Structure formats: C-alpha cells, structure tokens
Amino acid sequence: MSDQPAAAKQINFTIVPDDSGDSPRTYANFCAISHTPFDFTLSFCEVQPLSLKDIQGAEADHLVKAPVRAKIVLPLQVVPNLLAALQEHMRVFTESTGMNWENKGPVH
Predict the structure, then answer these.
(1) Structural domain count, the chain
(2) Is the distance from CB of 71 to CB of 44 less than 8 angstroms?
(3) Is residue 16 one of the residues assigned to a domain?
(4) Nearest to 68 by CA among 86, 84, 45
(5) What is the pLDDT of residue 55?
(6) According to the model, what pLDDT value does residue 5 have?
(7) 29: closest CA among 85, 82, 68, 87?
(8) Cβ-count burial of 55 within 10 angstroms (0-12 exposed, 13-18 middle, 19+ buried)?
(9) Closest among 16, 31, 19, 17 to 70, alpha carbons compared
(10) Distance between CA 86 and CA 82 in Å, rounded?
(11) Is residue 105 part of a domain?
C-alpha cells in the first residue's frame, strides 16, 4: 500500500434544469442590477402602465416603484458565463427571427 494520495479524477458533466417540479414561471419586464465585491444581484420587476396618480408622483420625486417578482444573487464567477450565454442566445435569436436588437439604446 502506498501512502500517496490517489490522483484526482476529472469528471466532465453538463448541468441541466430539472423542470419536473411545480416551479412557477414569473414574468418580469424590468431588471435592476446591483453588485458588491462578492456578487451581483438581479432584481426582476414587473412594471405596469402608470396611473394618473403614479405619473403625478413620478413628476414630484422622479421615481416609480415596481414590485420585485424575483431577486437572484449570483457569485462573481457565474457572471462572465451568463453574459456569454445571453449574447449567444441573442445572436441565435436574431439570426433565426431576423429581428435586430442592436443599437436600440437604453430601456431605462
């Protein structure tokens, strides 16, 4: 018997979502992003058409509050791969639909 530790075995695998549960889908049409030195937080909100009262309030303080539907905290290590995946999916979407979303300007 050897007192040497066994060489680490590398196993490659793919992680896929398990949609067999009853996880509800949540609609959001706005995402606020913040970060700390350790993680990024994505706050997904649903912005409804503004009422007259909402518009008057926004004129006074220049803020419209939108209810948060989901808040996701991502470790920094995940963010570059998320950005790359979103860019790749947008590229495929644009090519398959002919819709061009580039240079549309900010939505906020």
Answers:
(1) 1
(2) yes
(3) no
(4) 45
(5) 86
(6) 66
(7) 68
(8) exposed
(9) 31
(10) 6
(11) no
Mean pLDDT for each consecutive 10-residue tract of the chain (108 residues)? 71 89 90 97 94 86 90 97 95 90 61
CB 66 within 8 A of CB 46: yes
pTM of the model: 0.73
With beta carbons less than 8 A apart as the criterion, state whether 42 and 71 touch.
yes
pLDDT of residue 96: 93
Please check whether residue 54 lies inside any domain of the structure: yes
Whether 59 maps to a domain, the answer reads yes
Contacts of 42 (CB under 8 A, 6+ apart): 31, 32, 33, 71, 72, 74
**DSSP SS3 for 99:** coil
Name residue, tokens 């539907």. Answer: 69
What's the distance, CA 19 to chain centroid? Answer: 18
How far the first Cα of the chain sits from its last, in Å, is 66
Domain span at residue 66? 30-97
